[in-house]
Amino acid sequence: MVRRVSIMDIAERAGVSHTTVSRALRGHTRISAVVRGRIIELADQMGYVPNAIAQSLQQQQSCTIGVVISDMADPFWGEVVKGIDAVCATSGQSLLLHAAAHDEKLQITAIRRLQRRRVDGIIVVDSQLGPSEIRQLEASGSPMVFINSQRTFESTSLRSVTIDNYAGGAIAADHLVALGHQKVAYFGSPKRPGSNLKRSLGFIETLVAHGLQRSRIFQDECAADIADIDGGYTMAQALNEPGVTAVFCYNDAIALGALAGFRAKGVAVPHKISVVGFDDLAMARYSWPPLTTIAQPKELLGQTAMHNLATLIGGASVADAVLVPSLLIRDSSTPLSKGLRA
Amino acid sequence: MVRRVSIMDIAERAGVSHTTVSRALRGHTRISAVVRGRIIELADQMGYVPNAIAQSLQQQQSCTIGVVISDMADPFWGEVVKGIDAVCATSGQSLLLHAAAHDEKLQITAIRRLQRRRVDGIIVVDSQLGPSEIRQLEASGSPMVFINSQRTFESTSLRSVTIDNYAGGAIAADHLVALGHQKVAYFGSPKRPGSNLKRSLGFIETLVAHGLQRSRIFQDECAADIADIDGGYTMAQALNEPGVTAVFCYNDAIALGALAGFRAKGVAVPHKISVVGFDDLAMARYSWPPLTTIAQPKELLGQTAMHNLATLIGGASVADAVLVPSLLIRDSSTPLSKGLRA
DNA sequence: TTGTGGTGTGCACACGTGTGCGCGTTCGGA
DNA sequence: TCCGAACGCGCACACGTGTGCACACCACAA
Fold it and tell me: Rounded to a whole number, what is the distance in Å from the CA of A141 to chain B's nearest CA?
């Protein structure tokens, strides 16, 4: 930290007390115009840069938001953070970012570090914390918002913003039924049990509501210790239920892997089998074929979280937010009749 | 910022001065074992969380690194930031992130904000600052490292980490020549004139060195006001030089657009034309066909930048770093003979 | 002349932490 | 017994900023 000019330095040069300098620069009313003018000019000339750290200490607020993210390089979370930042920028907040892979200990450590830095609030994306950790965090008193957390919780300082996973599954089911598919599969992931269950439930129950028999809905799940994309590849290879003409995947990563798996197997997508993903990753547009998917409003997710966190910091209360995903039709899903003709 | 327990509170409860508490917690030597034990226990029991803001003020260093990034959602920069964070995490630093789109004013504003926060150093990724702004920043004295900046500069506190763009272009040329291509094109972008020039120069001069005539090297450049991916699409559509069998693109975004453009035009990649990109975006793996590209070591870029910045902060001097890209062969490029046979 | 009210400025403290210096105590050796 | 050294701890200050209160000054009216 380079030694920089302080208001004391300016005060000395201007022949006044640091109090006057502080007031002049912050636009206090009862300062004579000439003194204010001289101080402002002097500050500019001396290259004064206010010390936000000292201000934070004095004001008891840091104007900083802590964000805990599982993987910095994940484009999905990148867009969420973009949404968070957009709101922060308007309110003059800064973003303190900490990575913490999918590990409870690491996440807790990251949160503790942010609390040491006295952030005004914390946003945790993709949290996998258990009930005991959450209780512990609640005691710390920091306002927190969890985005797409796998658990729900009841507390005054802890809130969540989630996507409606059940609705997402239902939308996928509606889409495939509308296309005429009669025998379908769900490719799940055990790594995020909460959302996986809801997506599959929304999918299956809606299919049943449309009159499909449960015996015509096949389910598979990849191993927990491999990457989703590899899991998708494996499940596509392993799928040997005759007559299955459509697959709904837990997320786009699995779907992209499935596309590769079906291609390697010689099964044409979408002519032989339709594939639907979830998330709308940036790369879903550029896969072959471009992926039909249930799109999450990623930036909105971040914006909403930040907005609600600001409310929490302000001392007011907010409700948990649930955002609805939307169907994005591309080329990896097609009507059954057309598929059979091909 | 919630009111939290301070060392004064602990001191009061322990019946000692805050000095003793501070020393006990920081592992000072000349503190009796029993007092230290009691204080540590008390601190734990009272839920003491050190105030990093006060520590920063006292120690005159914030243990915080500022990062200015053009677009939070850009997966390329996501990986770079991941590299930065990896090094930061080992040294206990935190990351203060500010977004600033491709705009000199915004970038300067972001840097000023970080300086107010008294970050120990700043990393600017994808800077587009002009010479006058850079001179201005130099005067501010903060150690800074620029990643893939479009300009070079000479200063003690400013350093750069860049990819060897010329070498990247040369590698692409070597690859296409080795595949037997005799007439090729370069799809450029005017938005980043510095790196665009170097990539094209490395590409063209190497081709010439391999004996190719300049008249057999076709160049195009997209408009500055559209997205790269759309530019790639347009250039692919517009390409009507007969006999061109390979295209090297300024980056993967243009290459992905070109893939779509050629597909729409009915030109098969790679059978009729080979396409090579630059960057190795995550989605380059999942395009159709998977994209051959000149891969940038993105995480290494971030790690190196952070490493050099730490050296700069430590008061030592470092040289500018230049990293070499590598060829990543996928399916969008193929030998000429095979292409003609197909 | 005195009282009143407004204006401009400074003193002193607060925020939470770390540390140089000094003081009192204890301990060991001569 | 005495003295120096080591030990254990607190005072007071520093870091840079903001603010409640008090004070001096001026203008104006009574």
Answer: 7
